[in-house]
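Model it.
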Amino acid sequence: HFPELAKTVNDNVVYAKIVLAMKSRFNANQTDFSDFMEEEEVDRVRQAALISMGTEIAEEDIDSISRLCTEVVKASKYREQLSAYLSNRMQTIAPNLTTMVGEQIGARLIQKAGSLLTLAKYPSSTVQILGAEKALFRALKQKQKTPKYGILYNAQLVTKAPAANKGTMSRVLAAKTSLSARIDSFGDHDNSAALDYRTAAEGRLKQFEEGLTYGKSGNANGQAKQFAPRGGGAGGAGFKRPRAEGF
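Modeled.
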């Protein structure tokens, strides 16, 4: 009936509202869309309706489509209400955890652990792979590499990290997340500590983007790759230890 509308409007909720308000594309010029659309978008929709190649549609079909669009709008409103409720509850119960990983990831971690207290008792290594238990046990059974992340894979800091450093970033974030959960569970409900933790994690992410790496000792060695080892040769071959006196 109006196939051009899908190319003109990208938002599914706005699309459903247009259909509910307009019913038929022949009513585009007489319909008021100002409640949920900008003037430029309204002009594009009306221009598309004038040159549409769609065919006629029965009133029965229009009624079915309108009922479906009504359900879409209701589901969208309920999702917004649920998101606002989750955000308020997480800010009240676990402000530090919310600051570190966001309300959705934090809520999923608490749900997976069973409670905030149980999550606070977990070591950071468990928090890191929380949500990937099946992959962990399968890897242990088949003697393969264990997973590096679970629910934290969807966290903002991990998704921004380069592919080669996602595992390291997940470990860093898991350590800070574990500390944040313990503060929320046993300490005051103040997210000042989580702000410092997040700043440190973002600093590590920035170092990854700049190509700075860390050795096993934790010392930065990204710039050391530009220099040849002492004594010449790869890997320090040719380096001689000084002889002890008296021998």
